[in-house]
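Final paragraph of the annual report: two paired records, presented back to back.
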Amino acid sequence: MDRVASMVEPLLPRLGEDQDAVELVALLKKTDALVRQREAAVDEVARTVDAIKDNHYLRSQIEFELERRRETNRSQLDDLLRQNNELRQRLEDILRRS
């Protein structure tokens, strides 16, 4: 729209005081401004929605990693408990033999 207005605007002096031509240029400029404003708002909405999606994905990844680590830690704890029981049993056996 702005491009069309910039092409028509130089013709205004040739058209004299034609109010329709002046009004046309003004309307084209206003329309262009409104379209740009609308596009900016749509872009902002799209960026915000994309950010929400990214945050949701990252949260899911973090939660998955925390759960995986919890399972790994639980497995390590179980191994340590088992080893501790084995060592306790060995100590009791040693003390009985002494």
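The closing record of the year follows.
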Amino acid sequence: MTRCIAQDVDVTIHHQMKDLESVPQPTRSPDQARPVILELRQRMAVMGANDSEFWTVDEILKKLDSGEIEPDQAVRDAHAILEGKQDYH
């Protein structure tokens, strides 16, 4: 029962985030992007069946820390991983 509720909430959040993608978002700093990415990583963990997702998110965080990737792009990349999991499951 709990899993069904969690999936319903996740689907609702997914649709709300899709709606927000069309709204221009302010530029984030690395310190603002990190918790967003970690929250997305946690949502992946709750979904289970994780293969390379954690490693890929860790790589995004390393690139964010080194300045190799912009904060907004890092959030988009992490969000894309979550979307891929949602489409798969």
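Residues 27-88 form one domain. This concludes the annual technical report; the extension proposal builds directly on these records.
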